[in-house]
Write a structure and sequence with these properties.
The protein is α+β, with helices and mostly antiparallel strands. The chain is globular and about 115 Å long. Helix 17 packs antiparallel against helix 18. A hairpin with a 2-residue loop joins strand 15 and strand 16.
Length: 798
């Protein structure tokens, strides 16, 4: 019996007892009591225990009508259930726009409570999808693929042990119903011809009603005949051993079908073709034991293949929402196999393996195209993070903490960095590993533990985002007044994407260049990469750049920065650079880049590498100095042959490579590392330029080295190099008033003091003038310093 009924019965009993107590002295009390009270009590009990449950049951069985499907309300119900959730639709607005995030949060919560979420959408490659596209005047295939991509993203954030509770399939029939079920109730509608079912009338019923039972049976029937999402988005492929003919490890590979021919896009295939150019590479597809197929790399130099490659790339992007550079043709696959249904396929529906080894194999960097070695850039981001952290030996708790840090600060690396620069035997203490991977203790412990708990518990995206944003704002996202003090004006209006701090130099942030081949964990430009428009500086207006420089003859140098401008194509970069070459008073163009270290193939084998070098030559040929501001943080970055060749090739255009980096605790806080780095740079013809101090933003508390120690390291390294390397200056603080160099420690009036001077300043009068600050062994930044007793404020801070 329900708790409410019991409470009501108890209340009635108390009232009845009081009435009896007060009436006990009346004449004929006992007779009247038995005559009146007993029937009333009996009637009440029958009403509560019999009639009310029947009425409630009838109410529950009643069919309720709704004008349309309320997606937010359905998400709220999903978040509260621990039972079954089912969706059957052509495609669903539940999985797009603002609803997608809300449903993902609700589904994660439901799955954590033990629910199973089943989603069944129309097969995007079926005849029914084409017919439905005609009825809706919409691209059903594209919409279904978008839904499937959202569901894959949801699966990626689920804990491994929960992923089997999210089940996604596609059906090829054209059912007459649509349902959205949560627990014992469901919303049912019948497909209108001219609009999506969710926009039409909905019937809310229980699964025990005749309609609910019929719809449930129809769903189960369709489910049994449907295909898994793996079969839609991937193909089951196995290499065939040439000697034994035995199949190798199963792989689920992304693919496109073009005119009945199967094309696969996966780096492992390209690697295999590169390793065995002397013999055919063969595979089995979809578990077929009867037929073996030969692989063939698409060569854009062959007649007609370039147009095919462009078409395949477009089809791949439409299907997966991502880019693919290279494709492999599967020769001899019959059209029937490409269009096969689940009933015709071999039973190979086990989920794709997500073990760490497989993730590590997936980041191999060797590839072949046009008959020579041409590495293909492969970015590795949050979906790859857990596997890479496990490879470094982090336990589950520390991986979760590192993932929490990556919610606040950006993470991105690539296959070259992972394979060529990191010593995995030394990870997680390896300096190059620390340079690019989030550390579990990079942020304040309380923040990390709170975010980790939210991730573990499946907190809503809105709640997580709000907490992340609060942390980011505490990290001083725009240090040195760069947003308030450095934004220039053009015709009286602020100009986005430019910084004009020093009279002679303008910084420009091209919109297309505000990412990098890999992110440094210490990067002071982290706000550019976190997806918050209010924190980002960027402009796509090349005309505004040119106009501003023309209007300010004091500007002699433009620094194009980011992000990394060399992430852009050469053609896009040229649109910003070439108009500057028409400005007479401009003397130099600088490009800030880490590509020389993190992706040297940008200068060697990328499709437009030669075009990039021709652009450099045009800048130099115009009579300007072209300086590549190369960011080298550790000598290991110059060890790979590709890095040396890239450096030489860039210099061959007449560009000067000047090298700079900050001093980072745990990465390059040894004098020997700096000395070796500077010597190697000089040997390759590059110019050591700056050793910076970690700026007062982001994870400064984690990476910063005190100024006193920074000067000791600089002096020790400086003493180990020849005069050719002593072009370097440091340690340098790029602070609000300007660039301040720590020159040393001296006795001034009987007190220890830092000796400093401005290398560059907002106020030109400060440049080159030495000044003193009270010695503080723990000071890490200009604002940590105090003037000597009796002196006024430090220059630039008064």
């Amino acid at each position: 019996m329900r708790r409410g009924v019991l409470l009501l019965c108890a209340g009635i009993g108390v009232v009845a007892g009081l009435c009896i107590w007060f009436a006990r002295g009346l004449p004929d009390f006992r007779e009247n009591l038995l005559l009146n009270l007993a029937p009333e009590m009996l009637t009440t009990m029958v009403t509560l225990l019999v009639i009310q449950p029947v009425l409630s049951r009838l109410e529950e069985e009643r069919v309720r009508e709704h004008l349309r499907l309320d997606y937010p309300s359905f998400c709220d119900k999903v978040a509260q259930t621990g039972d079954i959730v089912c969706v059957l639709d052509t495609f669903s607005y539940l999985l797009s726009g603002a609803s997608a995030t809300r449903f993902a949060d609700a589904a994660r919560t439901a799955i954590r409570r033990g629910a199973t979420v089943r989603v069944m959408l129309l097969d995007p490659d079926s005849m029914a999808a084409r017919q439905r596209s005609h009825e809706l005047s919409a691209d059903v295939r594209r919409e279904v693929m978008r839904n499937l991509r959202e569901l894959r993203r949801l699966e990626a954030v689920l804990p491994e042990e929960h992923r089997d509770r999210l089940q996604v399939r596609v059906y090829a029939a054209a059912p007459s119903i649509q349902l959205y079920r949560c627990g014992e109730r469901m919303m049912v509608s019948f497909y209108p011809v001219d609009r999506l079912s969710g926009e039409g009338q909905q019937l809310e019923v229980r699964i025990t009603t005749p309609l609910g039972s019929f719809v449930s049976e129809r769903f189960a029937e369709l489910w049994s005949r449907s295909r898994s999402v793996n079969e839609v988005l991937t193909r089951h492929v196995q290499f065939v051993e040439p000697e034994s003919g035995e199949p190798g490890t199963p792989m689920w590979l992304e693919y496109v079908d073009d005119d009945g021919v199967l094309y696969l896009s996966d780096q492992r295939l390209v690697v295999e073709l590169a390793r065995h150019r002397d013999r055919p590479v063969t595979v089995r597809v979809d578990g077929s034991a009867e037929q073996v197929h030969e692989l063939e790399l698409i060569d854009p130099e062959e007649p007609g293949e370039l147009a095919l490659l462009r078409r395949l790339r477009a089809e791949f992007t439409e299907k997966y929402g991502a880019d693919a550079e290279m494709f492999v043709r599967v020769k001899g696959v019959p059209r029937a196999m490409i269009e096969t249904t689940s009933a015709e396929r071999a039973p190979v529906r086990t989920a794709r393996r997500r073990a760490t080894e497989v993730q590590c194999v997936a980041v191999q960097n060797v590839a072949v195209q046009n008959g020579d070695h041409r590495p293909v850039f492969r970015a590795l981001a949050l979906p790859h993070l857990d596997g890479l952290l496990a490879r470094a030996g982090l336990d589950e708790a520390d991986r979760l903490r590192a993932r929490a840090v990556a919610e606040v600060l950006p993470f991105r690396t690539n296959s070259y960095v992972v394979d060529e620069l990191i010593d995995w035997q030394a990870a997680p203490e390896d300096p190059m590993y620390r340079l690019v991977f989030p550390q579990p203790d990079m942020l304040p412990r309380a923040d990390v533990e709170r975010l980790a708990s939210m991730l573990r518990d499946g907190a809503s995206a809105d709640r997580l985002r709000a907490d992340v944003n609060r942390i980011r704002l505490r990290l001083n996202p725009h240090p040195s007044g760069q947003r308030d003090l450095n934004t220039p004006l053009l015709d009286g209006e602020p100009v986005e994407g430019m910084q004009h701090k020093y009279a002679e130099t303008l910084l420009f942030f091209p919109r297309q260049g505000q990412t990098c081949h890999a992110y440094c964990s210490y990067c002071f430009r982290w706000p550019q990469f976190v997806g918050e428009p209010d924190l980002r500086m960027a402009s796509g207006d090349a005309a505004a750049l040119t106009s501003y420089v023309r209007a300010h003859p004091e500007i002699t140098s433009v620094l194009i920065t980011g992000g990394d401008p060399l992430i852009m194509s050469s053609a896009v970069l040229a649109r910003y650079v070439e108009p500057l070459l028409e400005i007479p008073h401009l003397e130099s163009v600088r490009i800030g880049t880490k590509a020389l270290s993190y992706w040297p193939h940008r200068f060697l084998t990328d499709p437009d590498a030669d075009e990039l070098l021709r652009l450099f030559e045009r800048v130099v040929g115009s009579g300007r100095n072209l300086a590549l501001m190369g960011h080298y943080s550790h000598p290991r970055e110059l060890e790979p042959e590709a890095a040396v060749r890239a450096l030489r090739r860039a210099q061959g255009t007449g560009a000067v490579v000047r090298c700079q980096a900050p001093l980072i605790r745990g990465v390059n806080d040894r004098a020997q590392d700096w000395a070796v780095l500077w010597r190697r740079l000089v040997a390759q013809g590059a110019v050591p330029y700056y050793m910076f101090v970690e700026r007062d933003t982001g994870p400064q508390d984690y990476f910063a080295v005190p100024l006193a120690r920074a000067h000791e390291l600089f002096r020790e390294a400086y003493a180990q190099v020849s005069g050719l390397a002593r072009t370097v200056r440091g340690p340098i603080m790029s602070a609000t008033p300007g660039k301040v160099q720590v020159d040393g420690v001296a006795e001034v009036g009987g007190r220890r003091a830092f000796v400093l001077h401005y290398v560059q300043a907002r106020d030109p009068e400060l440049v080159g003038r030495p000044f003193f600050a009270a010695y503080d062994p723990d000071a890490r930044w200009l604002t940590d310093l105090r003037p000597l007793p009796g002196d006024g404020p430090l220059p630039g801070l008064g």
